[in-house]
Write a structure and sequence with these properties.
Blueprint (H helix, E strand, L loop, with lengths): L1 H19 L6 H12 L8 H20 L1 H9 L12 H30 L2 H22 L15 H11 L9 H12 L3 H26 L8 H29 L5 H19 L5
């Protein structure tokens, strides 16, 4: 019975991860809160933290699956000789690397500090609320008013990649949202909403894969966990992948037509509920 309940909790968390990883609502923040609500715990040292990073990889796999043709095209046309530098895979992945640098450096410096002091429901809720206000301000002031063009492709300059990269550093704070941070950075740099969102998807591939791999190794790998815990990892990974595949497509279609502030309103409402629960002692 305990095994079944543990797996059901993993399914719920996989759904939470799949829904929230690419929406501007903070997947890490939601996982922290829902792990607390579900009392998702383990006697194996560092298992819960490892679980979080493994199921995030499931969501990242969804990006690779959905954008496989685009990724393959950048690899086939990697060198500039065929299409020129501006349309080459070399430029595309170079901009991704450049955008990864600020977050990579600051992540190494401050990630452990953030985990120690901020990975709790109440700090996450406060950040969710503040981040929502930032999203509303940025959308009102910075979002491009031009109509969506289906022929539009990701074409990012070095300056734009650096701006997005520095904004992505905000995601070190749980509750801020990597997706929200990079989209706001895209607005600041002059990118359209859809291009900003899709650039954040591709940016997530090296960022999340690299960070998750390092964390899993740092936490001791998968050698010490039980068969039930391994099953929970597999279930969470698969569920997050399936849900993320559905959510990514619908999110992009939504951004083509409607504003992003609805996610900010959700963040504010959810944050108030969590804060109220925190002050009444429901959360630890």
């Amino acid at each position: 019975m305990d095994t079944i309940i543990f797996i059901i909790k993993s399914i719920i968390l996989g759904i939470v991860e799949g829904v929230t990883e690419f929406l501007p609502v903070s997947s890490t923040g939601h996982l922290i809160i829902f792990q607390n609500i579900l009392n998702f715990t383990s006697d194996t040292p560092n298992y819960i933290e490892m679980y979080t990073y493994v199921i995030q990889l499931g969501a990242i796999l969804a990006v690779i699956f959905l954008y496989r043709e685009k990724i393959l095209n950048t690899l086939i046309n990697f060198f500039p000789e065929k299409l020129g530098y501006e349309r080459s895979g070399l430029k595309f992945w170079l901009m991704i690397i450049i955008a990864c640098i600020p977050g990579g450096v600051l992540g190494i410096l401050f990630d452990d500090l953030a985990e120690k002091y901020l990975f709790f429901p109440v700090p996450v809720a406060i950040t969710l609320f503040i981040g929502a206000l930032l999203m509303i301000f940025a959308e009102n002031r910075l979002r491009s008013s031009k109509r969506y063009d289906p022929r539009e492709d990701i074409n990012v300059s070095v300056k734009q990649a650096l701006i997005v990269g520095f904004f992505q550093c905000l995601a070190i704070i749980p509750g801020m949202s990597r997706s929200a941070s990079t989209i706001i950075g895209g607005w600041v740099s002059g990118l359209s909403t859809v291009v900003s969102a899709e650039f954040s998807f591709f940016l997530a591939i090296p960022v999340m894969v690299g960070m998750s791999a390092l964390k899993i190794v740092k936490l001791g790998g998968l050698s010490l966990i039980s068969s039930t815990e391994m099953l929970a990892l597999a279930v969470g990974f698969i569920v997050s992948f399936i849900v993320a595949v559905i959510v990514i497509d619908k999110f992009i279609n939504y951004l083509k037509k409607k504003p992003m502030r609805i996610f900010a309103y959700y963040r504010m409402i959810f944050a108030v509920i969590v804060l109220a629960a925190g002050f009444t002692g429901i959360f630890q």
